[in-house]
Design a protein that fits this description.
Arc Repressor Mutant, subunit A, about 0% strand, disordered C terminus, about 200 residues
């Protein structure tokens, strides 16, 4: 099976092959966008994301085997043009939240995702108040399921900057009066990242 990098390289001369990139990544990229801005605008943002990717495919870093971090980075920038939709989504999260942050570790992948979503909804006001660059970094980690290195690639920043931003987010999302940084269920992936030398 061809890597994303190989497909994108072929698409320079044969543009139609870029459709394989769309087929491979439309679901995770669409899911990330839907969580950020809701269902109403997801089709427009998803289309714009892949259109930008197609137009910029010649600039894709061929050393990356997967295009997902690149696509999620583009999606994150496109979302910035839909601030009103994202603001509505965070208000909806806050209104629908009746869950507390879960302290016990989830038992399955689906439980982990449910716990992550519940935690984010419970913290919606504070997440919405984060600086945009910190919120982007957090959500690429939590909803984009990217490693520190992949987030760095997606945003075009050093890995150390990603670590610093997530450390700052943990402190800012800590319970009021807490002297420490919060550890939420979606951050469980950080523990496995650290085991491979990618965590902070």
């Amino acid at each position: 099976m061809s890597t994303d990098s190989e497909i994108i390289e072929r698409s320079i001369d044969d543009p139609g092959t870029f459709s394989e990139i769309f087929e491979r990544h439309v679901r995770p990229v669409g899911g990330y966008i839907r969580r950020r801005i809701g269902s109403d605008a997801v089709d427009d943002v998803l289309s714009e994301t892949f259109l930008v990717a197609f137009r910029r495919r010649a600039a894709f870093d061929r050393s990356w085997a997967s295009a997902r971090p690149w696509l999620l980075g583009i999606a994150t920038r496109v979302v910035k043009n839909h601030r009103a939709a994202e603001a509505r989504q965070w208000r909806a999260f806050e209104a629908s939240s009746s869950a507390d942050v879960v302290a016990e570790p989830p038992q399955t992948a689906s439980e982990a995702r449910m716990d992550a979503d519940a935690a984010l909804r419970a913290l919606a006001p504070r997440i919405a108040a984060l600086a945009a660059r910190d919120r982007d970094t957090l959500l690429l980690h939590a909803w984009g399921d990217l490693t520190y290195e992949q987030i760095a690639d997606a945003l075009g920043v050093p890995v150390g900057t990603v670590r610093s931003r997530l450390n700052r987010v943990r402190r800012q999302l800590a319970p009021p009066g807490s002297r420490g940084a919060t550890r939420l269920t979606w951050m469980k992936k950080e523990e496995s990242d650290a085991a491979y030398g990618t965590g902070s």
